[in-house]
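Tokens as discussed.
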């Protein structure tokens, strides 16, 4: 006879602590970058916990890790629930790990209660979501949904390591996990994640029901001038690409976001060449990260960036070159899957709101091949990609309860 499946809060919180110990930094965060020794240790721990419970463990060619509990109808593709275990170099202990460990807690809760689901349920830990060591991020979910992983084999990491070698070592470090091909059909995907922003905490809501993920576009701008002597070159003779870059960035910051509260524009990296204190630079390269929920607005903003950079370069007798390095259109989640999350939240009587994700996630890619949805929980001060990232234990457990209820409904239609 089966019981009603229940989340074991103490077990979940203990697991969160155990995984936070893998790659722990002195400041209380984690450094568990993709395909590193620490990433391999976290994958091993999850696989060992799974095998102890009698679940089956698989991995694919990009090191996505799957933990399967069978359903009653072997003809149905699995419902996937999960997130990622890799982290930023100075990452928090919840980004990715919370969703992965809540998903594993759901699988254990089903097993504890001997509960039957029609579909198999699989926990997934997507490989290299962060992309901070090996760019781009969301590699695992992109490969799973059809991207050609072969193109990344020659990628060299921020630490000089070769992706192909580190990926191979990661896969061979887990011989217990049978290798399986990418592109298996799935019935749906649900991902729990911290919000990584402040709105749920500010509004004192324990749950965000995510209806869509906004689009992201990355541009690489290079302004070119003429290198020259800092002490001898008169203003009239300068072609200073730093002045052009700074003017363009300032103008973009004072126009795009102040005029459109949904727009985001961030210059996160800037470098002058040759980068000498007493030389006018020859060139200045900077990145632009643009986000917007409306695809057409990404085009409008990109056009504006191009025009502003060209005009400010021209004003300094310089030139501007702009390359689009990454384009990730947003996606709306399946209304059916979002409704299931709503139903689960309502059945638990939890205050919540529907919201759009400002960050991208693996769920963005899964939404292109199956009904998908996300559940957000608050994080303190909206902090993420920061070692101080913190989630209240009660909020973690509430999130797991919502994931459990949603998964039960989704896995037994
Ligand atoms: C993902 O980390 C993002 O930049 O949205
Ligand atoms: Mn994440
Ligand atoms: Mn992250
Ligand atoms: Mn992310």
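Sequence:
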């Amino acid at each position: 006879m089966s019981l009603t499946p229940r989340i074991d809060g103490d077990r979940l919180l203990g697991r969160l602590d155990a995984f936070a110990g893998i790659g722990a930094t002195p400041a209380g965060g984690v450094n568990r970058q993709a395909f590193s020794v620490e990433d391999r240790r976290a994958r091993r721990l999850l696989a060992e916990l799974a095998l102890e419970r009698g679940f089956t463990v698989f991995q694919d060619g990009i090191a996505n890790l799957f933990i399967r509990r069978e359903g009653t109808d072997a003809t149905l593709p699995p419902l996937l629930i999960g997130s990622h275990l890799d982290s930023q170099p100075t990452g928090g202990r919840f980004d990715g790990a919370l969703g992965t460990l809540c998903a594993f807690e759901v699988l254990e809760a089903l097993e504890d209660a001997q509960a039957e689901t029609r579909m198999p349920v699989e926990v997934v830990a997507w490989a290299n979501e962060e992309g901070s060591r090996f760019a781009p991020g969301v590699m695992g979910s992109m490969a799973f949904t059809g991207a050609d992983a072969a193109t990344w084999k020659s990628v060299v990491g921020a630490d000089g390591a070769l992706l192909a070698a580190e990926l191979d070592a990661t896969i061979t470090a887990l011989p217990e996990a049978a290798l399986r091909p990418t592109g298996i059909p799935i019935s749906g995907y649900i991902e729990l994640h911290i919000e990584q922003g402040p709105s749920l905490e500010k509004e004192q809501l324990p749950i965000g029901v995510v209806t869509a993920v906004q689009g992201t576009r990355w541009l690489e701008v290079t302004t070119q001038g003429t290198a020259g002597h800092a002490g001898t070159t008169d203003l009239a003779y300068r072609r200073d690409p730093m002045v052009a870059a700074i003017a363009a960035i300032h103008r973009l910051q004072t126009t795009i976001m102040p005029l459109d509260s949904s727009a985001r524009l961030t210059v996160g990296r800037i470098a002058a060449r040759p980068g000498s204190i007493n030389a006018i630079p020859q060139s200045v390269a900077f990145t632009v990260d643009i986000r917007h929920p409306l695809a057409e607005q990404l085009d409008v903003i990109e056009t504006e960036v191009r025009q502003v950079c060209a005009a400010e370069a021209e004003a300094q007798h310089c030139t501007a070159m702009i390359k689009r390095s990454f384009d990730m259109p947003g996606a709306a989640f399946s209304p059916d899957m979002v409704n299931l999350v709503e139903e689960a939240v309502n059945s638990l009587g939890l205050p919540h709101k529907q919201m759009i994700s400002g960050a991208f996630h693996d769920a963005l890619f899964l939404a292109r091949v199956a009904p998908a949805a996300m559940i957000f929980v608050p994080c303190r001060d909206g902090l993420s990609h920061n070692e101080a990232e913190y989630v209240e234990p009660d909020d973690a457990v509430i999130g797991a309860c919502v994931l459990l209820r949603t998964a039960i409904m989704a896995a037994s239609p």
